[in-house]
Amino acid sequence: MNAPLPxxxxxxxxxxxxxxxxxxxxxxxxLSMHLKVHGPLxxxxxxxxxxxxxxxxxxxxxxxxxxxxxxxxxxxxxxIRRGVRPVVVINGSEGEPACRKDTVLLNRAPHLILDGALLxxxxxxARTLIVAVTRNSxxxxxxxxxxxxxxxxxxGQQLRARVQRNPERMVSGEASAVIxxxxxGPALPPGRRERASDTGVxxxxxxxxxxxxxxxxxxxxRIGARRYGHTGxxxxxGTVMLTVSxxxxxxxxxxxxxxxxxxxxxxxxxxxxxxxxxxxxxYHGNWIDAAATHDAVISRESLANVGGSLGAGAILPIGPETxxxxxxxxxxxxxxxxxxxxxxPCKLGLPAAAGGLSDVINGGGPAALEALREVTQAVKGRGxxxxxxxxxxxxxxxxxxxxxxLAAHVLHGGCGRETVGVLPLPGPGYQEAEESxxxxxxxxxxxxxxxxxxxxxxxxxxxxxxxxxxxxSVAEASVPMHLRGRAQRAVRRCPxxxxxxxxxxxxxxPALPPGxxxxxxxxxxx
Length: 526
Hints:
Elements: E1 10-13, H1 31-38, H2 46-55, H3 68-82, E2 87-91, H4 101-108, H5 110-124, E3 128-133, H6 136-148, E4 160-165, H7 175-182, E5 206-210, H8 211-228, E6 239-244, E7 252-257, H9 262-269, E8 277-280, E9 286-288, H10 290-295, H11 300-305, E10 314-318, H12 324-337, H13 344-361, H14 365-379, H15 387-401, H16 403-412, H17 430-433, E11 438-445, H18 455-459, E12 476-480, H19 484-493, E13 499-503
Parallel strand pairs: 1-7, 2-3, 2-5, 3-4, 6-10
Antiparallel strand pairs: 6-7, 8-9, 8-10, 11-12, 11-13
Protein name: NADH-ubiquinone oxidoreductase-F iron-sulfur binding region domain-containing protein
Organism: Streptomyces pratisoli
């Protein structure tokens, strides 16, 4: 057990595929195959695009569920008011071990995501497109997709596009952390809450949505709101991408129309007929019991009505053979370790809550339970980002969903079942083992100018360390893609102008498919 999910697990579909169309033909839809499967895409004005998103009731598919039309209009309004060009960001970060649906789309249907993002960029008049990812496979796929369209970050292009590689962590996918990393800072929330639509990348209004959201708007733009609405529920039309894992025979990513019964989705994945509980929405989500699972359908409203959440689209059942509090304990420890370490509720509160849950499980009695409830309540609403709130939601849901087991541990010292470990978590050292493909650049120090200020080592310690003599101990270092932003920042901040970025030898540059003469949005026309 405890096997991490692969980047691209088995993919299934209920009904007619939309986002996964063509997956039965090839493993990855390159630009040519993408156009054969989906056809060309015509641009549209900003208001028309916003109206389309409104007509299909499109909400962000990254967890928060913010209306896409409202976000689009807010970015346009801010850009017009300030007289600046907005930026479009595809958030392909999936730092949660139970989520793979965006990773599947980035790996197998990258051009569908780019279609939606380029549609928004052209509608807004944006001149910058950034794809934020956290995994090798997604970085390689998206860089190849940009190359296939002839898009790059070179100056002089009408639209500059690039891939931003960030560490694979829970907090690195939060919108403010993505924006901060793009600016050359650490992939951590900045501690202040600003709307990206007002102040995002480089201070410009920024449209930031997750990969599935852009793919959904690309589908709707092709088939129209009326046809899009023929699939799924009337108030939540279309399909949803889900990651189903936990106590299942076949972990999978599955595309389903809204309104499909939850029990049918679980049956497809080989879940227990009567699960002890189902975690909905991922590790920032909520548990529901077997009765709620039987009644619920796949939709935000239905899951909320039974105490669950759609969230990031993760569905995780557990069977009757495992201790649910023990399963929750493993996730709690991981959530505590994922803290950004920037505020008390996250740095101190989450480890205290994880420790409190351990005390309850190990026979701490009513006093331990009360202490756990107090620390969980204290964390809510006080963090610098959404991680403390999401984690507190998980703790509170665990306590309310498994009352019988809770009573057994509090009053009798245990429930008599071992923890099987069915909820997926990454293996040890997963952050350190993840290495980016190279950028084709290197950092070099000019020793005739270096004065040993050490600012470069503070900004990018992964590449430069200070030696015992007070000077950098490495004269040059290859720059991986996910550290490129910080390396550029280190060059800009060097007061002695002793640091520079140079091109690495040609044989060390990553090979990508040729871009040819294909252009961005219009690549399928004419």
